[in-house]
Amino acid sequence: MTGASEGFGTEIEKTLALLLMSTMTFLFIKCINQVTRKRDYLTIENKTFTVLLMLPTATIIILGCVFYSNISFEGMNRVMVPVGASLLLLTNIFIFSVFDRFVEKSEEVKKMDRLYQKSRAEIANLQYMNKVNEDNRAFLHDINKFICTVAGLMEEGENQEVKEIMEHLGVRIQSLQKGVYCEHPILNSILCERKFLAESKNISYKITLGNDLRLDFLEELDMISIVGNLLDNALEAAEKTKDGRYVECRMYMGNEEHFLVMEFCNGYVVPLLKDKDRYISTKRDADSHGIGLHTVGKLVKKYAGIMRVEAGEREFSVKLIFTIK
Questions:
Q1: What residue ranges define each of the domains in the chain, with the CATH number in brackets?
Q2: Helices 46-68/11-37 angle, 10° precision
Q3: In angstroms, how far apart are the furthest CA atoms of the chain?
Q4: Rounded Cα distance, 317 and 268, in Å
Q5: Can you tell me the distance from the alpha carbon of 91 to that of 252, in angstroms, rounded to the nearest whole number?
């Protein structure tokens, strides 16, 4: 036989042709399967995924050329063609198997990292609540002294000193109240941990939470990844500004409590580059920067939510909208 268009002369040639077509069909279906599964991979970047598809695509092209070209299946070709096709097929099967294993391990590593973040958040929340309780006990211990002092000053008519003591009490009460943002332990620990980081870097940190926030539909690990990544990105960007260093976070219910809205705003000065629909950094470590937004975007899609990113002249903002079912 000298070509597919001339027909198959022997049963061996028919078998070889069937092998080539079956191999190409298998690889084509496998590639389609991997493409459809791509949306489920949180840890696999487009570059890695493209490299995976290069070998099967090249194999399909090579086998297609062999099948449709005028190659004689006589002599050594009768052995070399099926052996080569079989080796290519086995190599592709091995590559797909290794890639599936790689994806599985990457997802496990990502999950372990998120579990670690959750444990760290829970520990931080416990330590912070212990500190708040100690401050409350110290305040309650001192309040008796304040009352006795105020009573004595009032008897002596020292109204100005009484006023100063009461103002001092008000400041201490306000500082104690600022220590707790919400009753949700995980969210509260995330917000409190970033508050300490913002204070250490002299960044204005404002959190506004609406009443009756619905957070039960979010998995705790996903909440840590979403809120934690966005706050970390905001603090990192705000730290680079000279004036107006601030980070703001607002969460509230909308549309008669059918929507959960999260807004994150921060000042920034470094211009951002945009690759299609994804923001990347102009820093030297640009390969690792932007992964936070990329991961958040995939997690938001997991809950059928919407993520809007806006980069103004001096303010960068991210708005998330989740539908409450």
A1: 4-112 (no CATH), 183-325 (3.30.565.10)
A2: 160
A3: 121
A4: 10
A5: 53
* CA–CA distance, 320 with 309 (Å, rounded to integer): 9
C-alpha to C-alpha distance for 144 and 98, rounded to whole angstroms: 69
pLDDT tens readout for residues 190-209: 888 888 888 888 999 999 99
Residue 141 token pair: 């211990």
pLDDT tens digits for 253-287?
Answer: 988 888 999 999 998 876 555 555 555 544 434 43
Contact in structure between 197 and 305 (CB atoms under 8 Å):
no
Structure-token pair, residue 255: 């549309």
Nearest to 263 by CA among 217, 313, 211, 227: 227
Q: Which H helix or E strand runs over 217?
A: none
186 phi, psi to nearest 5 deg? -70, -50
3-state secondary structure of 43: coil
188 vs 205: CA distance, rounded Å: 14
Distance of CA 192 to CAs 25, 132, 182, 264, Å?
Answer: 55, 12, 10, 16
In which element (H, E) is residue 119 found? helix 77-156
Nearest C-alpha neighbor of 60 from the set 27, 107, 30, 16:
27
Q: Which of 166, 180, 199 is nearest to 136 (CA)?
A: 180
Rounded distance, CA 294 to CA 277, Å? 10
Both tokens of 51, joined, read 């490299």
